[in-house]
Design a protein that fits this description.
By secondary structure, the protein is of the alpha+beta class. The protein is 39% helix and 14% strand. It contains ten helices and ten strands. Strands 4, 5, 6, 7, 8 and 10 form a six-stranded mixed beta sheet that branches. Strands 2-1-3-9 form a four-stranded antiparallel beta sheet. Strand 1 and strand 2 form a beta hairpin. The longest helix has 17 residues. It is globular, with a radius of gyration of 20 Å.
Length: 295
């Protein structure tokens, strides 16, 4: 789906609607899937029935179905263009608490290059073709027409938000939207250096110490990782602190024996990023937890 060059207004005055909801309805009418974002600019947590994907839908957030929960669940997968859903009673409480509007770039046929600082912006201006630009609190969003895999920390201060991700709506921006260039697509092919370093560091202690794994069955580790994911997903406040404490708990139990693999760490990072943490925050929390434990 291609985003129109203009956003249609919802007919008639609607002063009784919260401002984020009015903006969301206008975006939805333009074909842009939207969702409310709460304090911290992160999605609302899943309802009780959908906590830890207990509903059986959207496994690992790879698909928006088959869960039919009417609540604002499953982060980016909740984004919709249906005005009846956006303005539904099931979403009303979320809109009253919402601080801004999020949208699913991939669902609108778009890719957002999120530039977090001046160095990232300088790199983009010298490397990427000009496109529609939206100012952010710390940098800029460069928006291209086309869909690709999302990935955080593709370069220092640069995230890519497209398929299976959400971005904060900050206005229509300026400039003419360009087609997604290969220079951006190629960024997602490489593994983020920060995440790779953290993952590799996590599995080094066993080889370095030559310790024997004390866990008698793989189920023990699997249950521990699942519980850690659930703890992060269920956090309704102090997400960053919860992520750090969870990483600390996992590493205190499994950090020295070599049980943890890149796949386990990726699951924890994915759960944290679904709550709004950046890849850099995840890596910092993981590194700090390792340092605290002397690993």
């Amino acid at each position: 789906m291609t985003q129109p060059t203009t956003i249609r207004r919802v007919p008639g005055p609607q002063p009784w609607l919260p401002e984020p909801l009015r903006t969301a309805l206008a975006l939805a009418a333009s074909g842009v899937p939207v969702l409310p974002l709460r304090r911290g600019k992160v999605p609302f947590g899943n309802c009780t029935a959908c906590t830890d994907n207990a509903c059986g839908g959207r496994p690992n957030m790879k698909t928006p179905g088959p869960c039919q929960c009417p609540a604002v669940c499953h982060a980016w997968a909740a984004a919709t263009t249906d005005p009846a859903v956006v303005a539904s009673p099931a979403w009303a409480a979320a809109w009253r608490r919402a601080v801004c509007v999020g949208y699913h770039p991939g669902g609108a046929g778009l890719t957002v290059v999120d530039l977090d600082d001046t160095d990232a912006i300088t790199w983009a201006r010298t490397t990427l073709p000009a496109t529609r630009t939206v100012a952010t609190t710390r940098g800029e969003h460069w928006i291209y027409r086309g869909v690709m895999p999302s990935r955080n920390a593709v370069r220092p201060g640069i995230d890519i938000k497209s398929a299976m991700a959400y971005a904060r709506y900050l206005g229509p921006g300026t400039g003419t939207m360009a087609e997604l260039p290969d220079a951006v697509r190629s960024l997602a092919v490489k593994e983020p250096p920060a995440a790779r370093s953290a993952a590799h560091a996590a599995v080094e202690p066993a080889g370095a110490r030559g310790g024997e794994c004390p866990h008698r069955t793989p189920a023990y580790l699997a249950r521990g990782i699942a519980m850690a994911e659930q703890r992060i997903t269920a956090a309704s406040s102090a997400v960053h602190a919860t992520v750090y404490r969870t990483f600390l708990a996992v590493l205190s139990t499994h950090g020295q024996c070599g049980c943890l693999t890149d796949a386990h760490i990726a699951r924890l990072f994915t759960a944290a990023q679904a709550k709004g943490e950046t890849a850099r925050h995840c890596t910092d929390a993981w590194t700090n937890a390792r340092t605290t434990l002397g690993l």
